[in-house]
Write a structure and sequence with these properties.
- The chain is an alpha+beta fold.
- Among the domains are: about 30-40 and about 190-370, Alpha-Beta Complex (Phosphoribosyl-aminoimidazole Synthetase, Chain A, domain 2); about 400-425 and about 560-725, PurM-like C-terminal domain (Phosphoribosyl-aminoimidazole Synthetase, Chain A, domain 2).
- The chain has 27 helices and 28 strands.
- It has a 7-stranded mixed beta sheet. A 7-stranded mixed beta sheet has the order 23-25-22-26-24-27-28. Strands 1-2-3-6-4-5 form a 6-stranded mixed beta sheet.
- The longest helix is centred in the first third of the chain and has 21 residues, at about 135-155.
- It is globular.
- Pathway: Purine metabolism; IMP biosynthesis via de novo pathway; 5-amino-1-(5-phospho-D-ribosyl)imidazole from N(2)-formyl-N(1)-(5-phospho-D-ribosyl)glycinamide: step 1/2.
């Protein structure tokens, strides 16, 4: 193979190879080229997104640690802090869904562990093609099994998430996993190597050939040959991960580690070079001292293997014996594989000889590509919607039942029942509410978690959709009574080298950044997943937001289900429904079209803040945001959840189907006892609101348009997604 064939097969361009020659002042050998190929992949190097990511605000009054470390960290109170991050495992899940999803969970757990936090909660955000296709049914079923199989066994509860289906995701599912950890603020750990002569210790499982070039695989489009790349997918062992978690936490509790880093994408190469670059030091790795589970592995394979359940630690020589003793107690491997040096290089040694050496700062500084942001032509046609061409339903009750039974709107109970969401006994609100709520043991404090994405909206209006995604997460946390404080994001997009893909990425980021500034929710961590594209085309631009909120008193929270007969139903927020880009338009008419309303962020914030204050004051215990399916679906979900019906009227100013099924940001439906209605009016002063009905009975009735019994609604809503997915 020629030199050019070699570096292009590793995913490097001519320009990038030329830069390597310039940086090194010589031609790299194959091992050194392999190091560059994984570290300069899009997955590790963020070549196309790094300039855009600087637009995000990263600072806030509660932020202890922002982007640049393994996870973001926010202060909670009483000396506690929350660490959290979301990451993707899209490409691996497309070719090996069970292991792809499982190791995605394992990897995000180790990110949280690497900052010294105990992982306490998992969430996920999933996208698949329509369930009518057998391949999509298989991917959906196996991804959910993988998440449950790993999360349940490792002992971290899966407390929330979301799943949607659309043709844009056929063949390229999105599998995003979020983890949250709890840590004492003074115990935070950094990944910066220091101390010349300190030892580099590999903790955890043995190294094999699984996952080799996984980072490069995740930086390419999926095609016909992608199924042959199963060796690029890692294999997980949740029981080994559980022991690794407990071992690392014990080591940190005794202050035995100088630095800690997880081994994920690009394996030892990524961890060692990043630790060295952050510390301004060098690291030498002796590959023949790395414990292997396969014979005959070459040094380059050892360096870029992505075998799971491994962590890299820097340890002072005098503490090695204690580190090794604790590792033995937990049945965790602990091998000295190198040392910290002063030369600033990632140096690979095998059999006593240097087989490769590259300045660590060069590996950690991939080239950056800034492209022109050009509005794609598809938007002109996609945003055009003549409402007159969309006939209203002949039977509104049947239309509501059809929406509730649609895979995108029916209950996710058949998914989350496969997850252990109560292990650890700190779960206050289980999956099914607007957000999960967890308690901090020994205090009254709690925190709420949500993941949200709006692919249709972002496809039709990338900037507005990006803002709406952040606003929806803010609203969901407010509905349960939590104060939103910060977010992590996972940016799932197509090929940024194509004008359409880069425009969507740039505009979504701009919309998200503006919303973060308006709502006071800084971005403290995140992940970018590009090249989510097959021969059918790119996925919808799908930035996923994982947001965290705090509750001073976790006992004061709200849930969506109706709790009492005779409560007043009050719609809070500026109600301006639209069918553009709505779930109804797609489900009932097969259209993804129109110009969704741009978020009115000051108005949305005022409504969410007012509802949150009412919950915190003990005035409101029933709240649910209006999202996909509009007012009718929100009301039905509240009624079915509580087993109590409701009567409602429509607000004037819109066509009946628009008022019932149209969508808009910033609206929350609450239910309060009649005797507290006046008190609620005072709490909502200055915020648009309207009483629209009352709770009671065993039916949903809306102005004679809808009159459906709860039993029919429940039958539609609780249909098993896996019956459609083939068991």
């Amino acid at each position: 193979m020629s030199v050019r064939e070699t570096y292009t097969s590793l995913g490097l361009s001519d320009l990038e190879y030329g830069r390597i020659l310039e940086l090194l002042g010589r031609a790299p050998n194959f091992l050194e080229l392999s190091l560059f190929s994984v570290m300069w992949s899009e997955h590790c190097g963020y070549k196309n997104s790094r300039p855009l990511l600087s637009r995000f605000p990263n600072e806030g009054p509660r932020v202890l640690q922002g982007p640049g470390e393994n996870a973001g960290v926010v202060e909670v109170g009483d000396g506690w802090a929350l660490a959290f991050k979301v990451e993707s495992h899209n490409h691996p899940s497309a070719v090996e869904p069970y292991e792809g999803a499982a190791t995605g969970v394992g990897g995000i757990i180790r990110d949280i562990l690497a900052v010294g936090a105990r992982p306490v909660a998992l969430l996920d955000s999933l996208r698949f093609g329509p369930l009518e296709e057998e391949r999509n049914r298989y991917l959906f079923r196996e991804v959910v099994r993988g998440i449950g199989g790993y999360g349940n066994a490792v002992g971290v509860p899966t407390v929330g998430g979301e799943v949607e289906f659309a043709p844009a995701y056929s063949g390229n599912p999105l599998v995003n996993a979020m983890c949250v950890g709890l840590v004492r603020a003074e115990k935070l750990v950094r990944s910066r190597a220091s101390g010349e002569g300190n030892l580099v210790v590999l903790l955890g499982s043995r190294t094999g050939r699984d996952g080799i070039h996984g980072a490069t695989f995740a930086s390419d489009e999926l095609g016909e040959g992608s199924g042959e790349r199963r060796s690029n997918v890692q294999v997980g062992d949740p029981f080994a991960e559980k022991m690794l978690i407990e071992c690392c936490l014990a080591l940190l509790e005794e202050d035995l580690l100088v630095a800690l880093q997880d081994l994920g994408a690009a394996g030892i190469t990524s961890s060692a070079s990043e630790m060295a670059a952050k510390g301004g030091v060098g690291i030498e790795i002796e590959t023949d001292r790395v414990p292997l589970r396969e014979e005959g592995m070459e040094p380059w394979e050892v360096m870029i293997s992505e075998s799971q359940e491994r962590m890299l630690a820097v340890v002072e020589p005098g503490r090695l014996e204690r580190v090794a003793g604790l590792a033995r107690r937990y049945g965790v491997g602990a091998a000295v594989i190198g040392r910290v040096a002063g030369h600033g290089e990632l140096r690979v040694v095998h059999g006593g000889e240097v087989v490769g050496s590259v300045p660590a700062r060069h590996l950690a500084d991939a080239p950056v590509y800034e492209r022109e942001v050009v509005r794609p032509a598809y938007l002109d046609g996609a945003r055009a919607l003549d409402l007159a061409s969309v006939p209203p339903p002949g039977d509104y009750g049947a239309a509501l039942l059809g929406l509730l039974s649609h895979p995108n709107l029916r209950s996710r109970r058949s998914v989350y029942e496969q997850y252990d969401h109560e292990v650890g006994t700190c779960t206050v609100l289980r999956p099914g509410a607007d957000a999960a709520v967890m308690r901090i043991r020994g205090t009254r404090r709690g925190y709420a978690l949500t993941t949200d994405g709006r692919g249709r909206h972002c496809y039709l209006d990338p900037r507005g959709g990006g803002a709406a995604t952040v606003a929806e997460a803010y609203r969901n946390l407010s509905c349960v009574g939590a104060e939103p404080v910060a977010l992590t994001n996972c940016l799932n997009f197509g090929n940024p080298e194509k004008a359409e893909g880069y425009y969507q990425l740039a505009e979504c980021i701009e919309g998200m950044a503006g919303a973060c500034e308006a709502l006071g929710t800084p971005v403290v961590s995140g992940n970018v997943s590009l090249y989510n594209e097959t021969e059918r085309g790119a996925v919808h631009p799908t930035p996923v937001v994982g947001m965290v909120g705090l509750l001073e008193d976790v006992r004061r929270h709200a849930t969506p289900e109706i709790k009492r007969e005779g409560d007043a139903l009050v719609l809070v927020g500026r109600f301006r429904p639209s069918l553009a880009g709505s779930a109804y338009l797609e489900a009932a008419h097969g259209l993804v079209r129109g110009a969704p309303p741009s978020p009115d962020l000051p108005s949305e914030k005022a409504a969410a803040d007012a509802v949150r204050a009412a919950v915190a004051a003990g005035l409101v215990d029933t709240a649910h945001d209006l999202s996909d399916g509009g007012l009718a679906v929100a009301l039905a979900e509240m009624a079915v959840g509580g087993g109590i019906g409701a009567e409602a009227r429509l607000l004037p100013g819109a066509r009946q189907d628009v008022a019932l099924f149209g969508e808009c940001g910033g609206c929350i439906l609450v239910a309060v006892p009649e005797e507290r209605l006046e008190e609620l009016e005072g709490a909502l002063a200055g915020v648009p609101r309207a009483r629209i009905g009352r709770t009671g009975g065993d039916r949903i009735s809306v102005l004679g348009l809808v009159d459906v019994g709860l039993s029919e609604l429940a039958e539609a809503y609780f249909m098993d997604l896996f019956e459609e997915a083939g068991g």
